[in-house]
């Protein structure tokens, strides 16, 4: 049986996406920021796509890294699949009007327009705040008309909802791409934390969206179901890793759920401090506090080899 993660299998799926959406190799290489020669080798199955490249491909095509790697959006990996209201409509193979993928060029055009609007709205809301962003600002940012914005997102509130779903998809894709081959649960947990630190433009924007959704959910009960489902995906990813570690004897047994609650709450609080520019805080300090918690509360035997290796690699 062919390995669904093999280079030829992944290449076949990416080639199908290029054909589906009418991409030339040159334009697609530019869109995902990859050298055209490397793309050509990867599409021929002679070179594996790197994790960051898979994330870019998923973002540009609206697919998930899970589908690119395994042929299914819901394939079981080391990270939880978005469910319920958090399932990203941007990653659906249907256009915004429900037309199945492959139903014609108009469908692909609508998908690209919707993605361009969502990308612009996501950036603007993250950088300037939900209440400061107008429909006209989004239209100007992505070079379309306010009418096009209203067609794809009838209300401004829907833009924030979709921005949160976009956050969920970004994190899901990144984790599937980066964590899939890390077999040691301790290393995987440390990498999962690194993938969540508010450092760099992309992650700081994700955190900005999360903080705004938390604030909106506190005063708007109608938004809470989407928030709960979105946060549940992150919580389940942490919980799965803790359960794997407990099952292999790396982490303490019988405490996966309370530890998942404690760890995610600690990450939230530290992330907010970093985003607020609290003196003495930053991504490095946040990482150190989280590693200390894991060493003291999570590891079954302090001094697990991967802890020492990680400290060396991160200075």
From TrEMBL:
What is the top-level taxon of the source organism? Bacteria
Q: Which InterPro entries match?
A: BetI_C (IPR039538), Cro/C1-type_HTH (IPR001387), Homeodomain-like_sf (IPR009057), HTH-type_TetR-like_transc_reg (IPR050109), HTH_TetR (IPR001647), Lambda_DNA-bd_dom_sf (IPR010982), Tet_transcr_reg_TetR-rel_C_sf (IPR036271)
What keywords appear on the UniProt entry?
DNA-binding, Repressor, Transcription, Transcription regulation
According to the entry, DNA is bound by residues in 134-153
Q: Which CDD domains match?
A: HTH_XRE
Single GO MF annotation: transcription cis-regulatory region binding
User: Which spans does this entry mark as compositional bias, Low complexity?
Assistant: 80-100
Task: Write down the SMART domains for this protein, in alphabetical order.
Answer: HTH_XRE (SM00530)
Q: Output the PROSITE patterns linked to this UniProt entry.
A: HTH_CROC1 (PS50943), HTH_TETR_2 (PS50977)
Q: The HTH cro/C1-type domain covers which part of the protein? A: 14-68
- Name of this chain's protein: Transcriptional regulator BetI
